[in-house]
Amino acid sequence: MRVVMIGTGYVGLVSGACFADFGHSVTCVDQDETKISRLEQNIMPIYEPGLDVLVKKNVDEGRLQFTIDARDAVAAADIVFIAVGTPARRGDGHADLSYVYAAAEEIAGYVKDYTVIVNKSTVPVGTGDEVEAIIRKTNPDADFDVASNPEFLREGAAIEDFKRPDRIVVGAQSDRAFAFMQELYRPLYLNETPLLRTDRRTAELIKYAANAFLAVKISFINQMSDLCDAVGANVQQVAKGMGLDNRIGSKFLHAGPGYGGSCFPKDTLALSKTAHDNGAPVSIVDTVIEVNDRRKEAMVDRIIKACKGSVEGKTIAILGLTFKPNTDDMRDAPSLVIIPGLQKAGATIRAYDPEGMEEAGKLLSNVEYASDAYECLEDADATVIVTEWNQFRALDLDRVTSLMKSPTIVDLRNIYPLEEVGDIDYHSIGRPQTK
To answer: Is the pTM of this model over 0.85?
Structure first.
């Protein structure tokens, strides 16, 4: 099939490359000439393991191309995806749909034969209706359908998630549009990946509901970790005991400094706004938003307490800046709250992240960046593990102790077994204190 992807951000680029790898002819469109030029040189705008290899393979084999001009590609397309950003709108928290609507208007001017126009962007309920209205107003003679096909990609594992998904959700009003989407996903459908057909509004809500539920699980186990701290229990064992119940499952039951990233913060907020606007508030989600914001701030107090009540004049080493491993994404990362909070309390910050330092440099000030983890720790008064990159899981703890001014580690991800930390003044989340 001939596929066009409007937008070469995280979702658009990964989806376009994977569709091309399925054998479809894919054109990825973006208005950013520099980004398109770099993509043509196989320079990725994001860090995602394996993406550069996948893109190069499909470009070399003629199934994937990049352009700033959507006209010819859309005119020849069977399916056009809208995969542009929907950030939280300043002032009210609603999803900013201006990029979606601009894309719809542009597409409308180029459509010729029957085309399925698909919202891949995460959008509030009813957005598909508005996209359809925009296209019909702009081009009354166009032969098209609008469908919803939400993405469920985890940053750092996006290619695997796309090629081996738990499910595919397609919100399609017409049988013809659904048949096109079935053919598009045929390689997965033949492997018996569940393909759920719904109406458009239901598909739009599934995405928000799924992300909100995962955010609830994260905030729940974070609050359980606080209770574990208070009563002397071990949150990792609590989580394991819960997760072995197949009604609950073990995923997203890992205590930490709070969720961040491109999805959960903005999607929970957008769902809350939609619910309130429609007179059906989701108080659980409202509470989770508040709990998560407070969680990140509370980590600053936890670190200061571990440093004998003060970080004034002390050097704090931060290991990990991105909101999760295997990405360079800094959006709503806990480090963006923790580092300024420590600086306000008088600390000097030295940081290291395998992929996120360039992005962090745009968002944080007065931070010294190290070339590796051990350089980061040198002469530090305390080390804080903020992101659980694999390379931080096997540090030489004897070397860590010899490098630091005082061997204090605050592990906000619980990546070290308590029995392995030896004489280090080690502080973790929701586990019995070693000292």
So the answer is: yes
